[in-house]
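Usage

Read records sequentially. Each one opens with the input sequence:
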Amino acid sequence: IRNCMARYARAIDRIDYELLRGCYWPDAIDDHGESQYVGDVDGFITWLKPILPLFESSTHFLGQQLVEFDASGDVAWVETYILTFARFAQPD
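and closes with the structure output:
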């Protein structure tokens, strides 16, 4: 799971949508919290496409992570703190 989160940060920072898609199970739900995106990976990528090009660069630092499995061990809930530094591109 930690490796997957590192790939996620890399995918976002490099605007690599295929790498990002590979970080999710087909039935995964992404919940970015308060009034941001909640849904599947394809919807998340669609949501990101007009946003990420606004940044000249971004750097994600992974912090505290909580991983919990259900009793069967087949389902995991993951919460990861991420500190992001983003530099906006100058408008043309």
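Summary fields computed downstream for this record:
- The CA atoms of residues 57 and 87 lie 5 Å apart.
- The chain has a mean pLDDT of 91.
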